[in-house]
Design a protein that fits this description.
Shape: rod-shaped
Helix content: over 70%
Oligomer: single chain
Strand content: under 5%
Number of strands: 0
Order of helices and strands: HHHH
Number of domains: 1
Length: about 120
Amino acid sequence: MKKVNQFLTRIPALLSSKLSIFIYLFLFLYLVIFAVLTMWIPFLKNVQPSADVQLILGNYTNVLSALGASLAAGSGTLIHHSLSTLHKKHDTMQDELKKTIAELHEKIDRLEQNKE
């Protein structure tokens, strides 16, 4: 179960990797933009993606949703990492503040004892 959880926590990082985003952008450009251009520009008909190629590489909706999911996963991972870093810094600073306050109280107590 531990390995499954480790794998699942790595998925957002994998989806938001530069390689994944490059693949999705390539598929989007090839299946959508290039396919539309081949419909409008007659001399590109010979290099138009065939129905089989479009079926194998995925349809337009899946490519766009995969790209969106990758970007969202990357943003979520980045935000989570930033927040956890901030929490660690906050906890460290809070501990230091508590120590400083305790030292200040000790100094005040010593000064009050010296007055007496």
